[in-house]
Structures are given as C-alpha cells and as structure tokens.
Fold:
Amino acid sequence: MGDTMEQGKILRWLKQEGDPVKKGEFVAEVETEKVNIEIEAFTSGVLRKILIQAGKSAPVGASIALVGAADEPLPAGMNGPARGNVTSVPNAGVGIAQTSIAAPNSAASPTSVVNTTTATQQGRIFISPIARRLAQEHNLDYRSIQGTGPNGRIIRMDIEAVLAAQEQPVPVAPAPTYVEPALEPVAAVTASEEVEILLTSMRRAIARRLTQSMQTAPHFYRTSVIDTGKLAVLRQQINEYAAKDPSPVKVSFNDLIVKAVARALLRVPQVNVSFAEDRILQKKQVHIGVAVALEQGLIVPVVRHADQRGILETARETQRLAEAACTGKLRPEELSGGTFTVSNLGMFDVESFTAIINPPESAILAIGTITPTPAVVDGQVVVRDRMKITLSSDHRAIDGAIAARFLQEVKRLLEERLGLLI
Structure:
C-alpha cells in the first residue's frame, strides 16, 4: 500500500460471504492515499466472513476478511456482523492486503492470522512502515515505545509524541504581556456560514507530504525565461508528422519539456538525487513525475525511463497516465519511483509560480504560460513568445550553481530545437 499509508477504506466487495474464492482472484477494492486498487486472495477457499464493511476504514495491519474451508468453524468472537471504522480487530497483524486466509481443509483455523500479543512476546515489534522510517530518521529506539494502534501497534503519532517530548524546551517565566484595551465585539461567523468538508485520503496524503517537504527541505528557487519560437515550430512539424502515423498522437509543449528535462538530467546528474541524512543518493535512472490536477487533489504519475523514450512515445505515455489518473485506474507502481517532477500550470494562464518539492526527490520544475513579450533582438524591440520556468531545489543536496547549470541546459534544449532530436 506504500510506506506512508496507515489506513485504507474498503470501497466495495467483489465477493460476498459464501462465494468461492480462487488464489489470485480479486475480492475487494480498497482506496489508498492516491489510487484505488483491487485486493487479491493469496489462497483458494470460501469467503467465510467479511470483517470490514464496504465504505468503512481499517488500519494497515488489520484483518478484513476470513477465507477457509466451507465446513470450518469461525474463530471465537467473529460470528457477529461486520465492523465499521475499527480501532482494533481480533488477531490483527498480517497486513490489510492479506485477507487473513488459510488453505482450505487445513488443520488450522480459517484465519491463519498472527496473534499480536504472542508475536510481541516472541520478540516481534508491530510498527507501521511510516513510524519505523520516522524512528530511523531520528535514531530513535522504538522497541520500548508503547504503541497506541491496533493491538499495541506503534504508529506515526506515537513516534512523533516521543520526539516532541525530547525536544520540549525548558519552561521559562513568561514575560509581562501588554493587554489591549477592550474593543467592540465583531460579528462571529456562525456555523451556518461555513461548510465542513472532510479530508479524503488523497488530501490527507498531500497535506502530510508537502508539510513535511517544506519543513525539512530548505527550498531555494531559480527562474529562467525561455524563447519558445523555435519550440513552437518544432511542435507543429512533429504533430504534422504524427497525424500520418498509424497511431496518431498530439504532442504538447509539456511533452517537449519532459523530454528536455530528461536529457538535462543526464547531463547534470547532480540534480537527479535524493537527500538521505548522511549521504546523497544519485539516481541511475531518469523517471519523470508529471503533476496532474484532479478535482479531489494533485496526483503525480511517473514516466519511467523518460530519457530513453522518443518524443512521440513520451507523448503517448503522458496521455495514457493522465487518462488513467482521471479515471482512477492508475496502478500503485505508476505513482512511485519518480526522481524529478514537472508541474505545469501554463494552461491556467499562470505566468510563473514556485512548486513544493515532491519528497524524496530534490527538485521540481514549475512551468508557466507562454506569453507574447517585448524583447530586444539585434538592437530592435520585437514581440517574442516567452515562457518562465522556475526550479525549486533542496539546498541540502543541490547547490545554486548546479541548479543554474541545470536550468541553462533545459533552456538550451528548448530554444535550440535540434537538441531534443539528436
């Protein structure tokens, strides 16, 4: 489900209680932070019991259903109705994607679920992936922490509470405060004047990740102005050629920018990196994330091996990913592994903007709209189509000169159109 996910929502059950289930067959659809995915059974048998109803949520590590032989008795305490939003599930601990299943006709109970208490006594510590990563980043020994998650599972809030306690400043006597004179009260906003909108899983993920990025990565910004005259000519020529192709595709300016970024990352590999506390990880592959705005939030599918794709192939892949994002059909692997992100708001007539880095990447390129702009060429004032691009960089991993050199390379590739073809 991803190492930052702590709970999932069951959207619908594809199988009902009593239905036969084959190994590898999809049994339920689950909403993750970014996409909806189908959960498959890891063994064959009969769906004996649904533990989490459709529309309800459960933490990662909770059991959601039991699969076993048709004549096996259900474990004690699991004969009641399916649960709603749960904070504890009996015998939880095998992961929400594993539907707590055992081979039919086995001597074991239908669940084959690890008992958390027993496992802990045997030395296993139950901790969510994001909590473990947070503890490792701060060199925190989590073995002595009392978890507040299901069956004592250590979750992110437990780690954050310990870190906050360690950083608690020594209290000092408060300084005298100045009290403002009483003012006339102003009209308060009543409940009827606002609408409460509950956060979706996607919106919670966006809030958490971007807050983390701004708090931990020291952002700095470099802006460059691109003359897009030759680029527009190249795009027109490519589209005229592509229209005669057996599989026609329309190339956008963003497709050409993705191609230029991929080539620039090969020539300035110091930007294709991640910061990892005591080291910098330089990526061997070039995987470009392309930000796609949906009604429910921002999503970043990844064009893998973008440096190895031609322009037409890049255009087909970006269009496929965008369509899959809009229809909710992206696979989890199509949202992970990016090494650099391109965010384009030019279609909304935004001249320029600064984007927040998408962790664990170290840079993101913000693309503005193409605008007719007065420019001095050969001593004459003429109107040229110009586009502003702004690079946000993590100063822990990338220095200013490196960022400037990368932007210079992108500018050269976009302004000298042959640079994208040879």
Notes: The longest strand covers residues 363-377.
